[in-house]
From TrEMBL:
SMART domains, sorted: Filament
Keywords: Coiled coil, Intermediate filament
Underlying gene: Ina_0
Gene3D superfamilies noted in UniProt: 1.20.5.170, Single helix bin
Originating species: Nicator chloris
Biased composition annotated in UniProt, kind: Low complexity: 157-166
Protein name per the record: AINX protein
Residue ranges constituting the IF rod domain according to the UniProt record: 1-150
PANTHER family linked: ALPHA-INTERNEXIN, GLIAL FIBRILLARY ACIDIC PROTEIN
Length: 179
């Protein structure tokens, strides 16, 4: 006569070990992914700050150049030709600064979009973790139900034979990360 209690304990310990390994692997994967996302977010935030500082500095430079250009217009008639050369040079610099500001604003917009994408990925990771937690809880409940069913029917073998034999299949999920 086989020792069913020992077999069930062995089966339960195997399922618990498998569930613990799966949980640990999922948590390790989740932590690594979160660490990378936090690192990217920190770099993106620093890039946004640097872009804002640079845009402010460009605006100040542009303002300073425009003030300087206006002061030169009031100069003497003999400086009229030099003033025109300065105006052309300052206009070129102003256009360059405007291009730089436009480029920095594009970079800022791209960085914001990237941060939004990182947030969506973080939410997806949280959803995967919750699904894994639910699945582990379901396996535990299933094991507890089997143990309860076994304990209820341990009075005699005929009571076990009267219950339909449940069949379970384990299908591990595979997760892939998208970057």
């Amino acid at each position: 006569r086989p020792d069913l209690a020992a077999a069930l304990r062995e089966l339960r310990s195997q399922y618990e070990a498998l569930a613990a390994r799966n949980l640990q692997a999922a948590e390790d994967w989740y932590r690594a992914r979160c660490a990378r996302l936090h690192e990217r977010a920190a770099r993106s935030q620093e890039a946004v700050r640097a872009s804002r500082r640079e845009a402010g500095e460009c605006r100040r430079q542009l303002q300073a150049r425009l003030v300087e250009m206006e002061s030169l217009r009031g100069a003497h008639q003999s400086l009229e030709r030099q003033l025109q050369e300065l105006e052309e040079r300052h206009n070129a610099e102003a256009a360059g600064l405007q291009d730089t500001i436009g480029q920095l604003e594009d970079d800022l917009r791209n960085t914001k979009n990237e941060m939004a994408r990182h947030l969506r990925e973080y939410q997806d990771l949280l959803n995967v973790k919750m699904a894994l937690d639910i699945e582990i809880a379901a396996y535990r409940k299933l094991l507890e139900g089997e143990e309860t069913l076994f304990n209820m029917g341990s009075g005699g073998l005929p009571s076990l034979n009267s219950l339909p034999s449940p069949t379970y299949s384990f299908q591990p999920r595979s997760f892939s990360s998208s970057t």
